[in-house]
Specification:
201 residues; alpha/beta; 9 helices; 5 strands; 13% strand; globular
Length: 201
């Protein structure tokens, strides 16, 4: 089983390329954002620690952590973000390591993908067999985020500034997919890299 990390800046099109991979290869795909959400649910590893840190005012009526309230509280206190990350990131990594082990034992998965913007910063380079950087030009990304998510230029700029630079992404990766052009151009790069793995029509 080949273990591949997928990273890249906001608006680079990581999700779109993973949809293509999911449709055509014997693979498992885990999005770190979705895993992070799962480990915050009541009864899961991070729940009690986050409630103790953030206070019960971040909870919904059913006891779940309200994403918006949590984000608002973190936004007001930069130290809180570091503390939350120190709780959530190790739990996400532990969850993914369990899933990797599970997939290896079952022996049915050829490719195992983990996607997150922070894979390099969180040390996943030591876990995956190879790291892919999904690249798209800044103008392309800004246009996509404005059209698909309704982000303002200011919001897009703030997110981009908080992420790794182009040089840092490239330095931490083994393979770069240029996703600035048409989907087919990107798909061709994927097929070339994964030549030899099972192809499903």
């Amino acid at each position: 089983m080949r273990l591949i990390g997928i990273t890249g800046g906001v608006g680079a099109g990581k999700s779109t390329l993973l949809e293509y991979i999911k449709a055509h290869y014997l693979c498992r795909i885990y999005l770190a954002d979705q895993v992070a959400h799962a480990v915050k649910e009541p009864g899961q590893p991070c729940y009690e620690a986050l409630v103790a840190l953030l206070g019960r005012e971040v909870l919904e009526e059913d006891g779940r952590i309200h994403k918006g309230r949590m984000a608002e509280k973190i936004f007001r206190d930069e130290n809180l973000l570091e503390q939350v990350n120190a709780i959530v990131h190790p739990a996400v990594q532990e969850y993914l390591l369990e899933k990797i082990q599970e997939a290896r034992q079952e022996g049915q998965t050829e490719l195992f993908f983990i996607e997150a913007a922070l894979l390099i910063e969180c040390g996943y380079g030591d876990i995956v067999d190879e790291m892919w950087y999904i690249h798209a030009g800044e103008d392309v990304r800004r246009k996509r985020l404005g059209e698909s998510r309704g982000y303002s230029p200011e919001k897009t700029g703030q997110i981009m500034e908080s992420q790794l630079t182009e040089q840092q992404f490239r330095a931490g990766s083994d393979f770069v997919i240029d996703n600035s052009g048409t989907p087919e151009e990107s798909y061709r790069q994927i097929r070339s890299r994964l030549e030899g793995y099972t192809w499903r029509q």
